[in-house]
Amino acid sequence: NRLTCLRIVISFFCIACVLQNTLLSLSAAFALFIVASITDFLDGYYARKLNLISDLGKILDPIADKILVIGVFIAFTQLGVVSVWIVVGIMLREFIVTGLRFYGLSKGVVLEAKMWGKHKTVSQIAGIILIFIVLIFINLYPDSQTGLFFRNQIITLVMIYILTITLFSGIYYFWVNRKVISTF
Q1: What are phi and psi of 95, to 5 degrees?
Q2: Which of 49, 57, 164, 182 has the alpha carbon at shortest distance from 116?
Q3: Helix (H) or strand (E) holding 15
Q4: Could you please report the per-residue DSSP string of 74-129?
Q5: Fewer CB within 10 Å: N-end or C-end of the chain?
Q6: In contact, 67 and 28? CB cutoff 8 Å
Q7: DSSP assignment letter at 55
Q8: pTM score, two decimals?
């Protein structure tokens, strides 16, 4: 739970750094994002390994994940790097599935993330890392055509892939949990 709370704090600093949009602030945001992502892995690993899974952790962990990922994506939209409609699609899936998980928890039912949910998380983190690299490159070499190509073409393709995986994982989540969900 401490690592999860730390991730929430780091997330807000990361988002603030992204919005500054300088070489130094983007580099700091990138480092903070990596640290926050590592804490996400570590808190899950240690909770399972040491059997420290708590009700508070079940609630805080997905909230911390959403603050980090959605917060950074929204900051990227503010910079004009990512399309708003893609981030809205990602947000809708995240809020619907997370809301359903919380509702299930309130009924004593745990709706677990499946393989596609894990793939979704990895693709979102990898996509954010790629965007940070491109933004840092563009700040280092503002006249580079390569940086502009990556910003305008590659980031859009990566975000469409992330949106596709995110939406598919949401549909899959509903499908595999349909019997449990129908009892709500």
Answers
A1: -70, -40
A2: 164
A3: helix 2-20
A4: HHHHHTTSS-HHHHHHHHHHHHHHHHHHHHHHHTT------HHHHHHHHHHHHHHH
A5: C
A6: no
A7: H
A8: 0.90
